[in-house]
């Protein structure tokens, strides 16, 4: 099952892609207008450790390995970004930071 969150942009360092923001069962990524995935934009949901929201921007902090960490930015329509963040927070069970638009992984 895939949920589309409208048109948007993905940015990670020098990488920049435009397309539809898609959330599947196990990953967050972008698709082009032909429906083809951008594999460079794949973010495994279980590797997300923190999310920040700024207006129509979703900053996703990812830790794919113990020694590797990066930040990916999704830009899109505010209502779609709000829905995307809400879904990511629920799936990952992230905890909201007090008085901030930021959610982090709880360490048990």
List the helices and strands and how they pair.
Layout: E1 3-12, E2 15-23, E3 27-31, E4 43-44, E5 48-54, E6 57-65, E7 68-76, H1 78-92, E8 95-96, E9 102-104
Antiparallel strand pairs: 1-2, 1-7, 2-3, 3-4, 5-6, 5-9, 6-7, 8-9
Describe this entry's structure for a reader.
With 108 residues, the protein is mainly beta. It has one domain: Roll (PH-domain like). It contains one helix and nine strands, in the order βββββββαββ. A nine-stranded antiparallel beta sheet has the order 4-3-2-1-7-6-5-9-8, covered by helices on one side. The chain starts with a strand and ends with a strand.
State the shape.
globular
CATH superfamily: Pleckstrin-homology domain (PH domain)/Phosphotyrosine-binding domain (PTB)
What is the percentage of strand-forming residues? over 45%
One letter per element, helices H and strands E, the order comes to: EEEEEEEHEE
Distance between the termini: 30 Å
**Order of strands across the widest beta sheet?**
4-3-2-1-7-6-5-9-8
Task: Identify low-pLDDT runs.
Answer: none
Total number of strands: 9
Count of all domains: 1
Highest CATH level, the class: Mainly Beta
Largest sheet: 9 strands, antiparallel
Rg from C-alpha positions?
A: 13 Å
């Amino acid at each position: 099952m895939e949920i589309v969150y409208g048109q948007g942009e993905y940015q990670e360092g020098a990488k920049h892609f435009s397309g539809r923001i898609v959330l599947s069962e196990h990953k967050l990524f972008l698709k082009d207008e032909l429906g083809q995935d951008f594999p460079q934009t794949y973010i495994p949901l279980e590797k997300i450790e923190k999310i920040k929201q700024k207006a129509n921007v979703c900053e996703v902090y990812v830790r794919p390995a113990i020694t590797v960490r990066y930040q990916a930015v999704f830009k899109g329509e505010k209502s779609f970004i709000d829905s995307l963040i809400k879904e990511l927070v629920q799936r990952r069970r992230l905890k909201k930071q007090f008085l901030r638009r930021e959610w982090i992984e709880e360490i048990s």
